[in-house]
Amino acid sequence: VRFHRLHPDCAEVDAAEQFDALRPQELAPADRPYVLCNFIVTADGRAAFHGRSGPLGDEGDKEVFHRLRTLVDAVLVGTGTLRAERYGKLVRRPERVAERERRGLAPNPLAVLVSRSGDLPAAPMFDDADQEIVAYVGARSPLDGAAATVRLHDLEDGALRPALEHLRERHGVRAVLCEGGPTLTSALLADDLVDELFLTVAPVLAGGGNDPSMTTGPPLPELRPMRLEWVLEREAYLFLRYRLTRER
Ligand SMILES: NC(=O)c1ccc[n+]([C@@H]2O[C@H](COP(=O)([O-])OP(=O)(O)OC[C@H]3O[C@@H](n4cnc5c(N)ncnc54)[C@H](OP(=O)(O)O)[C@@H]3O)[C@@H](O)[C@H]2O)c1
Fold it and tell me: 104 alpha carbon to ligand 1 midpoint, in Å?
């Protein structure tokens, strides 16, 4: 899949070459994984349409979504997203597995879930014997009949920093991709746990309604500046990569 790169320079690129140099593991701080977030929004800022984000995407977005999964040790999602979207085994296609192995990563990333309630939604990933799942839960509910390996760890008060530290120390995760949703992303931002944002702006409008934006809940104490790392365009979709910084 090819993109027009508009920033930092103009060029025609294919996804493989654009993502090739990214090694998020090398950027990890000592005590937690490096955290990338990936989101798609409509041009009017909605992260879903009638409850689902799938209709917002196209081929270019799918390419970015799956490319990012080839770069990381683990994929983190909230239970709202798990409930709304079909989450099966995270990396399936042989060429993507091969790309992960070329990078020295396990064939399939670890799935990391967080839930205060401990009520993990039934998702196809639980039925896949090849999918390893780690869940940080505020309360334990029985998980019957999962074919996947599921490890449960305690989560105190929804505190994500200790969970990420545990993920690093216990599971060796140095780079994690958070695929949302808005509640989880806001909690990560509030605890200053996001390092990069991959934001796709779809050339569509959702209008009003109750679908969330990328974030929800209380605002940050102050605006969080970001540095623009790249801009790609394909079929009127914009693919923005930002790094979170301290100063504008
Ligand atoms: N456009 C996109 O790229 C994109 C991406 C993802 C999702 N979405 C959309 O977003 C919507 C879902 O939104 P959402 O906010 O409900 O999703 P979410 O953030 O995935 O899920 C929220 C749930 O995750 C758990 N959680 C979040 N933060 C936590 C914390 N700090 N500690 C413990 N558990 C925590 C809680 O689970 P418990 O209730 O089990 O305690 C919470 O109810 C869907 O419409 C989906 O399509 C869009």
Answer: 30
Centre of ligand 1 from the C-alpha of residue 182, in Å: 6
Which of 62, 113, 116 maximizes ligand 1 atoms within 8 Å of its Cβ, making it the mutation to test the pocket?
A: 116
Neighbouring-strand partners of residue 76: 112, 178
Sheet harboring 110-115: ordered strands across? 11-14, 2-7, 226-234, 237-244, 196-202, 34-42, 175-178, 74-78, 110-115, 132-137, 149-154
- Record the pTM: 0.98
Block mean pLDDT (10 aa), the chain, length 248: 98 97 98 98 98 96 98 98 94 98 98 96 95 96 89 95 98 98 98 98 96 96 97 98 89
